[in-house]
């Protein structure tokens, strides 16, 4: 067990060192990737209520397709968050986090691919 923990820690440290080395060698590309990640994550966060309402209208969740307005947004976000807090899910906050993380990941992947193509 202790050997496994040591191996995991060693792997994490090696990965962190690699990331730091890459950032030092490519500061402009790293800044572009970070900026795009923050921008797309922020945009997704701002759009989370609308995305939640669309998810509810699409039939996701218990009352999917039967609600409108703020109720649809809340129900959709809770469904994306794994269910309501009372049901053991992460609720609306979890759904909002899922949407923001997905947006940020999409931005990081897209900007990473774009900067890689630029050389």
What does this entry look like structurally?
The longest helix has 31 residues, at 27-57. The protein has one domain (27-118). It has 119 residues and is mostly helical. The chain is flat, with a radius of gyration of 19 Å. It contains four helices and no strands.
SSE topology string:
HHHH
Structural class estimated from helices and strands: mainly alpha
Uncertain residue ranges: none
The domain tally reads 1
Could you estimate the helical fraction of the residues in percent? over 70%
- By DSSP, the count of extended strands is 0
Inertia-based shape: flat
Detail the topology: elements first, then pairings.
Blueprint: H1 2-25, H2 27-57, H3 69-80, H4 91-118
Structure summarized in a few sentences:
The chain is an all-alpha fold and 119 residues long. Helix content is 80%, strand content 0%. The longest helix is centred in the middle third of the chain and has 31 residues, at 27-57.
Task: Describe this protein with a few key phrases.
single chain, 119 residues, 4 helices, mainly alpha
């Amino acid at each position: 067990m202790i050997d496994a923990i040591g191996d995991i820690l060693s792997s994490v440290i090696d990965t962190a060192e690699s990331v730091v080395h890459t950032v030092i060698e490519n500061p402009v590309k790293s800044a572009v990737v970070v900026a795009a990640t923050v921008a797309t994550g922020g945009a997704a966060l701002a759009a989370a209520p609308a995305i939640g309402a669309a998810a509810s209208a699409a039939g996701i969740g218990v009352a999917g397709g039967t609600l409108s307005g703020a109720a649809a947004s809340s129900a959709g976000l809770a469904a994306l968050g794994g269910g309501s807090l009372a049901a053991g899910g992460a609720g609306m906050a979890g759904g909002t986090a899922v949407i923001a993380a997905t947006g940020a990941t999409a931005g990081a992947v897209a900007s990473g691919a774009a900067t890689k193509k630029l050389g």
